[in-house]
Every structure is written in structure tokens, then in C-alpha cells.
Design goal:
The protein has a single domain, classed as Roll (2,3-Dihydroxybiphenyl 1,2-Dioxygenase, domain 1), CATH 3.10.180. The chain has 7 helices and 12 strands.
Length: 257
Amino acid sequence: MNTIANSHLKVSESPATARREKRFDWPVCYDTERLLLGHLEAFLARNRFARQLAERMRTETGTLLFDWIDYLVFPEREESALRKAGFVEDPLGETAGSESALHHPEAMLPRVLVGRKNADLTARVAIHPESLCDFMAAHGLSGEPEGEPLSRFRRLLVSEDKGTRFEAVERHGYRGFVAAKPRAGQGEAFLKARELWHTRPRVFSEDVEGYSNAHAMLDRIIGMVGSSRNSGRIALASAGGITIITRFAVRASVSWI
């Protein structure tokens, strides 16, 4: 077993899971995706705010709500189906209550929290905007998010409708689900890292030089703020509207969602 540790959590990860995550050529997982999409469609039918946001995102930004989801909550009775679809325990999915976190090591899919017996069975879906503050201002939302500014994990209840809860979360190098006070100097380090990313050189004579410079800057930033292994997105939006995320993928970044 490989031991993975950060300042908040120490867990063990099976070698098989580690190999699947590191493999570049991933299999298609259509059945798994359909399982999550079916759950999301049922959720959207009951939550008006989330449904309207999904429609706006498709028509105004050309992005899908599904691609912005951080996690979905499934009842315990569906855990067997999730595991048959390839989900396994998330070694860095720290939770505070009775829920357990699952992820799919061979697909870029949202993670799943499984509610245990006698737990609140309210259907929950959470999206991951880069900034809760910007998200709240854009949508006229009030309230105080769980977690402090610039801390590792923040969460906001966006809409509660017909037995559903639509949430938004903000992350900084953390893959779990437990809010905590920032470590000494963590906020300053993040602000400095964001400044470095926003002001990095963007004009190069050769593309390869630009990529090399960007990766070197990312290495420096990760060294400053830390990073949970496969923690998801590096939440630093460039002025050009592109956010670099792990697994060498990029996606459009729209500040108002």
C-alpha cells in the first residue's frame, strides 16, 4: 500500500488504484456517466435554480452544468451500483459525518458522497465556481458560506427546493469536504500565487517555450500553496479565461457562474 499524507489527513491508497489514476490512456465510461447524468436530471427536475442555471450555461457559455459539478450525494442503497460502475473509496475524500466519498480512478467524473442509513436523504448537488464571492454577487445571493475566505474548503447553500439542496463550493488545494481555518501564512501564499499566475509572461517566440514557462510557474505555485494529490483544479484563472487543471486538461472559465 502507498501512504499518502498531507497536514490534515493520512491515508493509504492501493497500488492498483494509483496505477489506474496515473495511466494516460483512460477507457470510455459511458455507463458510469449515464448513471450520474440520470441522478442529475432527476435533481434538476426538482430544483428550479439549478435547472435555470444549467439552461443559461448551455446557451450563454456553451458549457454543461455536469462539467462544473464538484460532487453529487447518493443514498446508500445505490452504492452497489456505483461500485459496479467503477467507483472506489477516495483516499483523500475526507468527510466529517457519516458520508463516505467515492471517486472513479479511470474517468474525469464528479465525485460522489454516499449517505449512510438514518442520514439526511435530501438530494444534493454541488458545483465548483472559482470564487464563491463572485458567484454570490453575480446571482444576488446572500448568506455566509461555511469556511473562511482563502481556506481549503468553503461551501454555500444556493437553493433548497422540493427536497433538494443545490450547493456551491470553493477549493484551494484540498480534495476533502471538511472546512478548517487557514494555516498561518496560507492566505498570503495563495494571494501571491494568484498574482504570479495572472502576471506571468504570455508572449513567446515558440509555443513550446510558453508551455515550458507555464509548467515551471505551476511548479513554483504548487510549491508555495501545496496541493493534495489529484486534488482537482488549480483555482487560478488567467486573464484570457483559461484555467489550468490537473491531468493536463484545460477548460473555459466564466467568472459569473
